[in-house]
Amino acid sequence: MILKGSQRGTGQNLAAHLLKTDDNEHVLVHELRGFAADDLHGAFKEIEAVSHGTKCQQYLFSLSLSPPEDARVPASDFEDAIERIERKLGLNGQPRAVVFHEKEGRRHAHCVWSRIDADTMTARPMSFFKQKLMAVSRDLYLEHGWKMPRGLENSRERNPTNFSLAEWQQAKRQDIDPRWLKQAMQDCWNRSDNLKSFAQSLQDRGFFLARGDKRGFVVLDHVGEVWSLPRMLDIKTKDVRARLGDGENLSSVDDTQKMIGARMTPSIRRHIAESRERFQSRSAKLGEAKEEMTRQHRAARQKLEERQRIEWDVQTRERAARLPTGFRGLWHRLTGQYQKLRAVNEAEAEASRERQAQERQKLIDKQLEQRAGLQTQFKELRSKQAQQLLALRADIGRYLKFSRGHEEQSRARETSIGLRLER
Asked: Residue 154: pLDDT above 60?
């Protein structure tokens, strides 16, 4: 599974993020270890309070564990992975919280440790934690027989269309999958070998190359949204300059936005708006289906939890009734019968816990399968929308190319007429 860790402070912000149900369809606080509090906010307040006795600002270590999309991983496997990571990072015995999230038919986990050692009042060092997590991640892929991502096999071969959070959020505002945008720009880059051909290739796709204020080369789309070119290409700025030069002759962002606004025709805008309206309408229907499915799934889990709680209480009373009290209980202790009955009770309790855990996991796996089927429809809809919008961008590029040629012809005719008048 993919492991991503970070050192951080602001425990209350992290707790609020982990408990959000806006993005996550199911949230479960699976474990709170080493805390007096029985809720996530209270637990993280405890860690923060202890950290005030040190100079450590990043008193938490936060880890996300994401298995492959098609894997169905039981809670026990997540727990085993967390235990292994804890030992690897030197966080043994530290207070920790484990939270499960489910969305889009997938389940992943978050584990947050306190870095503050209460005995020494020092922060546990986290040197080289990224390399250690990568080593554990490779082992988990091999042990479970999962197909390992190329980037995990060789960091130089990581997927070039992976986005940072800022890039993802910027693209989400435009209702288009950002991976398509990134792939389109990379395709333009691969098809060109100099500034002129690259700029032309971008315009054929409805993008415009410009000179940024601080980021060097930038690309603007048809609505004037600005994208950092090195980030979209996933290469260094010096490599961009090696092919394109310093870009001093390029228009500024403001001038380019004015040009886009002047040339953008109402009809193309209407086509794009219509495409988005259709997408939003279909997406809304799927969204309603998702909300209804989420309500049904939550109700089913709550029903199972209530049934298991009642069952556990009944079994606990039955086990307690077996243990004799008073003089009879004293006699059973002296003869060893009490210890035997207690051992039987403990074994039955453990078997009951295991059986209930299997029931919960079976329900979760069934619901994940149902949600994954709905998510397939979401993906197909987003893919079709992305292709349609990219095709419209190409139409914009062709129109602007025609418009530019028409303007050049008009200027040429005006120049010719002026020369004849001078003669």
From this structure: no
* Cα atoms in the Cβ-side hemisphere of radius 13 Å centred on 389: 27
Distance (Å, whole) CA 266 – CA 129: 53
- Count Cβ atoms below 10 Å from residue 303 Cβ, excluding itself: 11
Class of residue 43 by CB neighbours under 10 A (exposed 0-12, middle 13-18, buried 19+): buried
> Average pLDDT, stretch 202-212?
86
The tokens for 393 are 């961008």
Which helix (H) or strand (E) segment is 113 a member of? strand 106-114
Domain 2-157 CATH assignment equals 1.25.40 = no
Tell me which H or E stretch contains 106: strand 106-114
Please state whether beta strands 122-123 and 226-228 pair in parallel, antiparallel, or not at all (unpaired): unpaired
Cβ–Cβ under 8 Å, residues 145 and 131: no
Domain ranges of the chain: 2-157, 165-264, 283-386
Measured CA to CA, the distance from residue 43 to residue 97 in angstroms comes to: 8
User: pTM of the entire structure?
Assistant: 0.59
Q: 54 or 159: whose pLDDT is higher?
A: 54
CA atoms of 279 and 243, how far apart (whole Å): 38
Going 177 to 183 to 186 to 191, the CA torsion angle's sign is negative
Amino acid identity at 284: A
Nearest residue to 127 (alpha-carbon basis) of 82, 87, 90, 85: 90
Residue type, 197: S
**pLDDT tens, position by position, 386-406:** 877 777 777 666 556 545 544
